[in-house]
Each structure stands twice: as structure tokens, then as C-alpha cells.
Task: inverse folding
């Protein structure tokens, strides 16, 4: 009983983000729909403008978020109409960081071995490329499962112009 | 959204996607590119001058489009990619498969 209430409270607090962006923080609730990816990149670009982060670095960061959110929606939530994702992006001390939390089944996006891209046009496979792009762009990646949620953390050092 | 800038230059189909090919826009790009390749020239140049962003969803549709063009006796190559787009193409090895060119003319010339 107590546990249920706690989980519900936690659910509420995790997924009731207001669509507000404080100066160096972006906080968004996303539903189970790939169209959300477009909204995330738009918001991230606005966040970058507000915080004076060069567009090139913002978009580099955005690719990683695109890949991970697409993964959650296509694989984590596959076959389910529900599913919630919360995204928090912060800029602090020259580091752009993000936390993605979802209530899908346990799924560590970084667990799979990364294969080097090989093969000609006929035999090229795209699976796994998304995560290779995340690893390439980020300085730190992390995953944990806690209390029924997946937590993915990303950090990218900003380059001073 | 489904509008895809394109023109036919000297027997090549030049596709000019704008802003982003991400998970939310890749389907529209795929449908438009597919229809254009079916009805137009099979030598396809992706002019990336106006493209700020591509993710693996975009790579997937480039590959699909390339396969279609190749099966019809043509091919696909890429011109004028920005630094970000180049980086994604390079991590995926797509730069080596399709070739990157500094101009649409150079891209067209690569078809021989």
C-alpha cells in the first residue's frame, strides 16, 4: 500500500514536468510518438540560442537525444500505446548534460556490442549505428535501472569558440 | 513537409532536403525521394547545402533511396555536406560508400 503510493507519487513527479525552460535547464515530458523528436530538437535549438551555445554543438547533442528517444519509442515502448519519457537538459560548467527517464521495460541501450560499420550498399545494416553516433558525440554515457524506470545520462563538453 | 526541393540537371536527379532529416521527418523524405526516383533519373545527388542535421533515421532513408536507384541502373552520391552532417556520414562509413563532393557538379561528374 505504502509502496504503491510511493510509486505513484514518484510517477507523478517524474512525468509531470512543466514545459518550462529556466535559463540553463530544459525540462520536457514526451509521449510515445516519434513526432516528439522534432519538438525536442526545436526546443534544444531554442535552449542553445538562449544559452549562447553554438548551433553546431547543439545539433551534435541533439543527434544523440534523437537516437536514444527513437530507441525508447521504437523498441522500449514497442507494441504499447502508453509510455512516458522525461527529458532534462542542463548546461553547467561548460558541460551540456541530459537525463532521459522512461517507464518502459528494462533496456540498456549501451549493452550491445558496437560493430564497425561494414558492407556495401546491398548489405549495409543500420541497426547499431544510432548508438555509435551517441558514443561518438558524447564524452560520458551512463545507464541505470531504478524503481521501475530506465535512466540514461549523457554529457558533452562544450568547446569554446 | 512532404515537399522535397529537387531539380533535374543534365540527367541527374538533385534532391535538396532542408534543415533536418530526423526520426520525425525521415518518413516524409523517404516517400518523396522514392516517388521522385521512380519517375525521374536514377542518378541521384543529395545536395546537403541546406541540411543542418541528419540522424540514423536519415541514414536509413539515404540507403533505401540508394538501393532503389542502384537497382534501376543508377546510383547515389552526396554533395555539400556541413560539418555536422559530414561527421554523421563519417561515423557511419557512408562517406566511403557514397562519396562526398564539394559541389553538385563534382557529384554529377562522379557518375561518369
Result:
Amino acid at each position: 500500500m505504502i509502496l504503491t503510493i510511493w510509486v505513484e507519487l514518484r510517477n507523478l513527479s517524474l512525468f509531470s514536468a512543466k514545459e518550462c525552460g529556466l535559463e540553463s535547464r530544459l525540462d520536457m515530458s514526451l509521449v510515445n510518438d516519434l513526432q516528439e523528436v522534432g519538438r525536442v530538437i526545436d526546443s534544444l535549438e531554442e535552449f542553445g540560442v538562449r544559452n549562447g551555445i553554438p548551433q553546431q554543438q547543439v545539433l551534435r547533442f541533439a543527434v544523440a537525444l534523437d537516437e536514444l528517444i527513437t530507441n525508447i519509442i521504437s523498441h522500449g515502448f514497442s507494441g504499447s500505446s502508453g509510455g512516458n519519457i522525461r527529458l532534462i537538459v542542463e548546461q553547467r560548467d561548460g558541460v551540456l548534460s541530459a537525463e532521459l527517464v522512461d517507464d518502459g521495460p528494462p533496456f540498456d541501450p549501451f549493452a550491445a556490442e558496437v560493430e564497425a560499420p561494414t558492407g556495401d550498399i546491398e548489405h549495409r545494416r543500420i541497426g547499431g549505428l544510432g548508438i555509435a553516433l551517441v558514443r561518438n558525440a558524447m564524452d560520458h554515457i551512463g545507464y541505470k535501472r531504478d524503481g521501475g524506470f530506465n535512466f540514461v545520462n549523457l554529457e558533452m563538453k562544450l568547446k569554446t569558440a | 513537409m512532404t515537399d522535397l526541393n529537387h531539380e533535374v540537371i543534365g540527367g541527374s536527379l538533385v534532391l535538396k532536403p532542408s534543415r533536418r532529416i530526423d526520426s520525425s521527418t525521415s518518413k516524409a523524405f523517404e516517400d518523396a525521394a522514392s516517388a521522385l526516383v521512380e519517375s525521374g533519373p536514377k542518378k541521384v545527388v543529395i545536395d546537403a547545402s541546406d541540411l543542418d542535421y541528419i540522424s540514423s533515421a536519415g541514414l536509413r532513408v539515404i540507403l533505401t533511396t540508394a538501393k532503389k536507384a542502384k537497382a534501376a541502373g543508377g546510383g547515389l552520391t552526396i554533395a555539400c555536406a556541413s560539418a555536422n552532417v559530414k561527421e554523421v556520414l563519417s561515423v557511419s562509413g557512408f562517406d566511403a560508400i557514397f562519396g562526398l563532393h564539394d559541389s553538385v557538379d563534382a557529384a554529377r561528374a562522379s557518375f561518369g
In short: The two ends of chain A are 54 Å apart (CA to CA). Chain A touches chain B through 31 residues (CB under 8 Å). Chain A has a mean pLDDT of 87. Helices of chain A lie at 2-15, 35-50, 55-76, 129-137.
